[in-house]
């Protein structure tokens, strides 16, 4: 009878990858159904509104902009920064949790 070496790196990686493949769709569905479904974003949102909607900080939002996950907009003739609510929602749903 063959025994399984639980300390084998490839064995542990295989299990971790299998668990991740099973959990990601569940987490995405959870976010869609329980968090975002009841909180439709406005078309244009100020940074503070985005942060309140998502429960994140301004530095976290800034990191998402720098990574290219989220795009910020400036309306012609204004000084303020705005974000597209639908773009934010799409970015959240299309970027898996890592």
How widely separated are the two ends?
38 Å
Name the strands of the widest sheet in spatial order. Answer: 1-3-2
Strand content: 5-15%
Spans of at least 5 consecutive residues whose pLDDT stays below 50 are none
Shape, principal axes of CA atoms: elongated
* Percent helix range: 55-70%
Q: Structural class given helices, strands, pairing?
A: mainly alpha
Count of strand segments: 3
Mean pLDDT: 81
Tally of individual helices: 4
Give the H and E element order. Answer: HEHHEEH
Radius of gyration: 19 Å
How many structural domains are formed by the residues? 2
Give a short account of the largest sheet: 3 strands, antiparallel
Organism: Rufibacter roseus
Protein name: Helix-turn-helix domain-containing protein
């Amino acid at each position: 009878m063959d025994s399984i070496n639980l300390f084998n790196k490839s064995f542990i990686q295989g299990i971790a990858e299998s668990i991740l493949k099973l959990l990601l769709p569940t987490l995405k569905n959870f976010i869609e159904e329980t968090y975002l479904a009841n909180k439709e974003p406005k078309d244009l949102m100020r940074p503070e509104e985005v942060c309140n909607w998502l429960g994140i900080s301004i530095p976290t939002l800034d990191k998402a902009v720098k990574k290219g996950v989220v795009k910020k907009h400036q309306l012609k003739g204004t000084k303020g920064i705005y974000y597209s609510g639908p773009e934010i929602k799409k970015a959240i749903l299309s970027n898996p949790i890592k």
